[in-house]
Amino acid sequence: MTRKENALMLLRSCYGYDSFRGQQWDIIDHTLDGGDSIVLMPTGGGKSLCYQIPGLMSEDGFAIVISPLLALMNDQIDALQQNGIPALALNSEKSESENRQTVDLLMQGKVKLLYISPEKLLSEIDRWSSSITERICLFAVDEAHCISQWGHDFRPEYTQLGALKQRFPHIPVMALTATADRITRDDIAKQLGIPDARLFISSFDRPNISLNVVQGSTGRTKLRQIVQFINLHRGESGIIYCLRRKDTENMASRLTSLGIEAQPFHAGMSVKEKQRVQRDFINDDVKVVCATVAFGMGIDKSNVRYVIHSNMPRNIESYYQEIGRAGRDGLPAEALLFYNYGDMVTLQQFARESGQVQINMDKLRRMQQFAESTVCRRRILLNYFNERFDHDCHNCDVCNNPPERFDGTRYAQMALSAIKRTDEQATMYTVTDILRGWRKAEVIEHGYDQLKTFGVGRDLTIAEWNAYLLQMLQLGLFDVAYDENNHLKITEFGNEVLYGKRTIELSRFERRDFKKSKPQPVEEPAAPEIIAIEPQKVMDKALFERLRDVRKALAKASHIAPYMVFSDKSLQAMATEKPTTQAEFGILYGVGEVKCQKYWRPFTAAIREYLAHQ
Ligand code: ADP
Ligand code: ZN
Does the predicted model carry a pTM greater than 0.85? Predict the structure, then answer.
């Protein structure tokens, strides 16, 4: 049997997968030859297999996996043990005797994967006898960008890891990260002492995540849209990112009052509370979490089906990392971004107050361009990460629903004339009130209700005005004077439009309703590798729901997260193929030998019962 055949056999028996993805095999092959490597892959790309398989293939040796987050480590080990793979961790949370026992098992060659934090490894490895160190077949450095001061998650303890290559020059090192930029990458090679490491760069595209932006919605409109959206995703897990702590709390309590159980999560909560929310989310006990960006870091949950940004993130890097938490199982997932003027003002404020004004303003501008794009959004994203992507994705709102352009000169003139009549002393909010003819305190106080333009824009909704004013700002008809209470100032171009010398085009605002318009995501496989369903076979959604309950009960009984029993993708395969025997069950996606043994009875029983009642 060739090396590759051997690896494929392990892939089937341990994980229940039939083939390697992308560059996985090349990376493994290179490692088995003793080569060092730097692996850049997006979240959910399948990095773990790259170091797990070499560990499994080594006869009496093991791979060391260096990982910064204890929670993540424990989750990975639970998941591996579910597949019957001997993986253990050495860390400071465990008792002395537990750790000693782990070292004994290492010595006996009974462990294939050892997870460890960098500081623990460096203090421990000098004490190990050669009978242990001789068995090390690989050092895998996960989240390797933590080594770089340029990265977004610098951890000083990582910088000591260069000692490994010095001491064990013959043991291959594999550095893995989802952060792509060149500076970080060069820093990793330098600091780990692997200048000749081969670079494996995968595409950063996540084709299964559909990209959607809603412009101009605020307040109640936004809440209504979020509720509609979640109602389309009932029973599925999702994250709603908010800008501030209090927004997470407000959002969670408003959703809960509308019958959608949601929990807040932010840095101001106690460690215990945060852990509880995280656990409940992982275990599918809470489906919706309203969080600041702090949430999601240490979470490996594969069945997050959507990520909503209730407020726009500060830059594309953050946005991409956050939406990347959806759809790690490769099944269709949705990213929904709300973008409005108020957020822009707040974010610009943040950027101006930050230490690096220029960089942060530039990054914000790029984020804004993404949100306002009238070309395929995925093109913009991937180009931002310097990846060539020269076709439309057909999985973003621009591709699926190209914006309609119309002559917006009349609307622009209404707005510009309102601004002019306030002597350029009003904010965008006040201008909207004037156009809509709302007698707000500020409007009355300044006598704006006496203006000729008062109420001329009544035929447009507030959401429409929000969206159009934003577009006019981007077109350069007026500026926002940040040093003067954000009052609007008409530009030269604006004057030309106001006096009829120039015309402008706007993109038609579309009221976004998340009702029946979209098919349920589970019915439209997006990525090519998604379960090969023969034409006549479709997934039975009622059965899927039933199997989800079975999964939950089994997870509860053995105190693990439901996605560790089986991924959504495996459940879909079951609800499609409807296996009733062990043999039929054992060949499904994600069903390895150990899981087949353990779970074929409860699942096939549920399927048989379901079929009997049809
Ligand atoms: P990363 O660490 O890069 O974020 P993971 O290693 O967690 O990604 O993999 C993401 C998901 O893809 C996991 O559910 C994993 O089991 C699955 N996966 C990885 N490789 C394969 C493969 N060759 N075939 C099918 N599924 C895979
Ligand atoms: Zn597109």
Answer: no
